[in-house]
Amino acid sequence: MKPWAGRFEKGTARQVEEFTASIHFDRRLYREDIAGSIAHACALAACGAISGAEADALIAGLGEVLQDIESGAVDFSASDEDIHTAVERMLAAKVGDVAKKLHTGRSRNDQVALDMRLYVRKEAERLAGLIDDVRRALVDVADANAGVVMPGYTHMQHAQPVLFAHHLLAYFEMLTRDMERLADAARRANVSPLGSGALAGTAHPVDRAAVARELGCSGVTRNSIDAVSDRDFVMEFLASAAIIMVHLSRLAEEIVLWSSQEFGFIELDDAFATGSSMMPQKKNPDVAELIRGKVGRVVGDLVAVLTVMKGLPLAYNRDMQEDKESLFDAVDTVASCLEVMAPMVRTMKVNAGAMREAAGRGFTTATDLADYLVRKGIPFREAHAAVGRLVLKCVREGKSFDELTLDEWKTLAPGVSEDVLEIVRVEASLEARAVRGGTAPAQVRAALEEARAMLGRRTMLGRRAGSMDAG
Predict the structure, then answer these.
(1) What per-residue confidence (pLDDT) applies to 6?
(2) If you count Cβ atoms within 10 Å of the first and of the last residue's Cβ in the chain, which end, N or C, has fewer?
C-alpha cells in the first residue's frame, strides 16, 4: 500500500505507477536515506515521540536493510515508487509495525532534500580526490620535463616560447580552482533540512541541530519552505562539474593536437589509444576525443536542472524528481573522465626535440626584439612597427631571425649591435620572463615546488565519521 493511499478510493493506474516511479534511479541514495532515517529515529526518541526501545529497533533494522542492499539481496520494483518507500517497506519486514512510526514528523520532501544534500557532499569530496590525481599527474610530467621548451600559442598561432612545464601547470591552476568550487558547493550543501516537514516545519519538538551534528552537517536550514524547494546546491554542483569538464576538454583537445603528425609533440601510450579497423597505421587519440565529447552531457545535465527549476512556485513540486538523473549522470561522467585522464597524461611520451624545434619557428622572439629596442630608447609602438617590418621582410625572403646578418639587424633601428643576437635566442626569451607566474626556468621551478606542496591538500569538509555516515 502506498504511504498516501488513505485519501484515495482506488489504486494508481499501471501507467501512472511506472511513469512516476523513481526507484530505478534514486535507489543509489540508499546510504544517505538510511543515514538520515537513523538520525531521525534518534531525534524522535530524544523528544519522546517514540520510546528508546523503539528507536533501537528501528536503528538495528535499518542497519540490516543496509546490509541487505549492499549484499545484492534486495530486489527493487516500481511498486516501491522511490527509495524512501522501498527502505520503509524493507524495514517493516524486519521490525514490524514499529516501522510505521519512523515517518513521524517527517515528509518525503525534507527527506529527499537531505538525501540529495548528503549525496552532493559525498560526491564533491570524491571528485575532488580524482581531480587531485590528475593534478599530481600534471606535476609529475611537468617535473620530469622541466627543461623542455615549446611554442606558446594565441589564436592557435605561434606566440612566444614557454616551458612545457609552465603550460601543464596552467591546467594545474584550473583544476585547483575546480577543487575550490567543489568545496564551496559541498559547504553550502552541508546543512540539514530535516525538521522542515512537507513545507511548514514539524509539530514534534525534534532537535534539528542534534540531527545535523549526527549527520556531520554544519547546521540546519533557516526556512522550511526554502529547505524543501531548494535545489541550488544541485545546480551549483552541476555548474562546478560542467566547468571541470570544460577544463578536461581543453586539455584533451591539446592532447589530440599534440599527438598528431603535424605537431608530433607527444605520443600516447598504447594503452590509451586505439586503432582503425581499416587503416593499419592509425593510432587514434580516442580517449581524449571522448573526454572532449562528453562535455556536452554534463553541460546538458546542468541546463536540464536549471530548466526544471526556473518556473516552479514554492514549495515542493514533483518536477523536482527530474533533478536526480541529471545529477547522477554528471557525477558518473565527470568521475570516469577524471579516472582515465590521470593515467593518460602520466604515460604519454614527450617529444622534447619536436617541441624545441617548433618553439624556434614563427618569429616567437619578436616581442623580445621590440623590448630590446625599447631599452634603446625607442617608444614601444615604434619598436613594434619596426620589428613588424623586419618580420615582413623575413617572410618575403623566406628567412628566419637566425639567418639575418648583423648588417641587416642594424637597419632595424639606431643603436642596434651584436647583443641583439643574444636577445632573439629562445632561451634568452624564457629567462627574460622572470616575473612571478612567468615562464622563466627559475619561476617555473618555484611553481613546481609550490604545486607539489599543494598536492593532497584537501579543501573539502571534514566531518565526524560514523558506521552509518552517508559518506
Answers:
(1) 67
(2) N
